[in-house]
């Protein structure tokens, strides 16, 4: 155990809470939701039938927790917290600061009935302002959000309807407030990623369970194929075919030329489109024994220009980089996390030619638009560190509901379910003034403290 995250009062409580929410968001499996519910009791003695259990120590990497004490909020503290939430909805920054600094209001407090926290209420305060006062209200709300997020409020706190403040800002069309929350998310993620790296979390260990699972191929509808793991998680589905097609066009822009490296065969969709473009060299790295057997059964080991490299990319990338660099690299592994992807970026720069193109299937946080937007920005910033500039393409996808039948959960659940960001990263020779990254880097930073 290397990191200890405690929700017990401390000056860095807000950071811990933010990190914890991040941890929940990262893995949407039920055990984290369970954990989340328990943690909610810290803030919300009313939420569970076990109201006294609400002070927890939380350990990440590996995730573990223990209950260290039992306490309940005093009526005085409750009253201060309720006044604090009222001040938030009234967008009264002076009162907010006074209540947190001088009277000990808890910046993470949530309304018992609705689960709305201070940031939700600030967003709501701007939303309900009369039309003629809207602009001024948004400015005030923006100031309140910045101060609160710098002083303990949790950027991705969820209300009872599982909406974060950013989700609400987006629903109400409050773009400035949405952007402020997203920036806070990016900062929190950067911090978390930094801590993860410090703890040297083993990226390799994480997808071990998947690689040992038994896979099945199904046909949910006529002509559609799905690859499932032994828990019925969709490893790959046919609805992604248009993304794969476009990716292949980007990766092999001139048919008959170039070399391409693809990580993760899955259903072989991207590889089939890549083959249609006849690259001179086409290397596929695949780690799952069932998938490798299927590839061979389909004759992929005999296709022109194709080389199958059996093993985890973590184990074979170094060796590949020592041979010949690639004109393009694609990444779409399964059972991996953001840290693995970032680790892959590190490898990818060594695998790419100086004009090389890197692309990956961007499904990070794809069950919630807010988290998706946070990851989109985060990836751009991280890749800039590796000398890569970013282009996003938005694709409109036909995603029939029937295709999800038999899968454990939808890993794609954005409101615009048919629109998917497709990523293209190119080495930065000179950053164009129109690039998405230039705009991001030049964007006015959001103050985190008043
Ligand atoms: C989402 S599928 C890829 C789908 C593919 N893009 C397509 O068009 O069908 C992910 C694939 O990555 C493989 N994979 C998972 N972890 C891997 C790793 N560490 N190294 C190499 N392959 C891995 C899985 O076995 C699976 O076949």
Automatic annotation (TrEMBL):
Pfam families: Methyltransf_11 (PF08241). Keywords: Methyltransferase, S-adenosyl-L-methionine, Transferase. GO terms for biological process: methylation. It comes from Saitoella complicata (strain BCRC 22490 / CBS 7301 / JCM 7358 / NBRC 10748 / NRRL Y-17804). This is RMT2 domain-containing protein. Residues 201-450 form the RMT2 domain. PANTHER family: GUANIDINOACETATE N-METHYLTRANSFERASE. GO terms for cellular component: cytoplasm; nucleus. GO terms for molecular function: protein arginine N5-methyltransferase activity.
């Amino acid at each position: 155990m290397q990191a200890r995250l405690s929700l017990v009062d401390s000056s860095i409580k807000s950071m811990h809470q933010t990190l914890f929410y991040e941890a929940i968001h990262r893995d949407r499996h039920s055990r984290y939701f369970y954990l989340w519910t328990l943690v909610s009791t810290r803030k919300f003695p009313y939420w569970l039938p076990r109201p006294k259990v609400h002070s927890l120590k939380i350990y990440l990497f590996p995730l573990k927790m223990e209950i260290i004490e039992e306490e309940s909020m005093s009526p005085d503290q409750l009253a201060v917290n309720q006044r604090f939430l009222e001040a938030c909805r009234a967008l009264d920054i002076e009162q907010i600061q006074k209540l947190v600094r001088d009277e000990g209001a808890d910046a993470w407090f949530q309304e018992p009935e609705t689960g709305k926290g201070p940031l939700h209420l600030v967003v709501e305060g701007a939303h309900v302002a009369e039309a003629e006062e809207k602009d001024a209200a948004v400015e005030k709300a923006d100031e309140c959000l910045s101060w609160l997020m710098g002083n303990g409020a949790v950027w991705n706190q969820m209300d009872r309807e599982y909406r974060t403040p950013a989700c609400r800002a987006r629903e109400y069309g409050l773009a400035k407030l949405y952007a402020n929350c997203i920036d806070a998310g990016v900062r929190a993620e950067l911090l978390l990623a930094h801590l993860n790296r410090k703890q040297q979390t083993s990226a390799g260990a994480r997808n071990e369970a998947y690689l040992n699972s038994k896979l099945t191929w199904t046909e949910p509808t006529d002509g559609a194929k799905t690859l499932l793991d032994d828990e019925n998680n969709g490893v790959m589905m046919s609805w992604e075919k248009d993304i794969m097609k476009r990716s292949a066009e980007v990766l092999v822009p001139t048919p008959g030329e170039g070399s391409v490296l693809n990580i993760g065969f899955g259903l072989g969709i991207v590889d089939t489109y890549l083959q249609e473009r006849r690259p001179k060299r086409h290397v596929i790295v695949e780690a799952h024994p069932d998938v490798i057997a299927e590839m061979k059964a389909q004759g992929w080991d005999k296709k022109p220009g194709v080389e199958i490299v059996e093993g985890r990319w973590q184990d074979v990338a170094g060796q590949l980089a020592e041979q010949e660099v690639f004109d393009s690299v694609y990444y779409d592994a399964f059972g991996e996390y953001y840290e693995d992807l970032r680790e892959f970026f590190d490898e990818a720069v060594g695998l790419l030619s100086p004009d090389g193109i890197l692309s990956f299937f961007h499904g990070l946080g794809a069950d919630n638009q807010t988290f998706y937007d946070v990851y989109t920005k985060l990836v751009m910033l991280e890749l800039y560190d590796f000398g890569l500039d970013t282009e996003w393409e938005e694709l409109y996808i036909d995603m029939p509901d029937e295709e999800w039948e038999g899968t454990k959960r939808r890993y794609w659940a954005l409101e615009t379910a048919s629109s998917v960001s497709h990523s293209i990263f190119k080495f930065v020779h000179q950053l164009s003034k129109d690039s998405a990254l230039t705009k991001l880097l030049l964007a006015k930073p959001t103050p985190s403290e008043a």
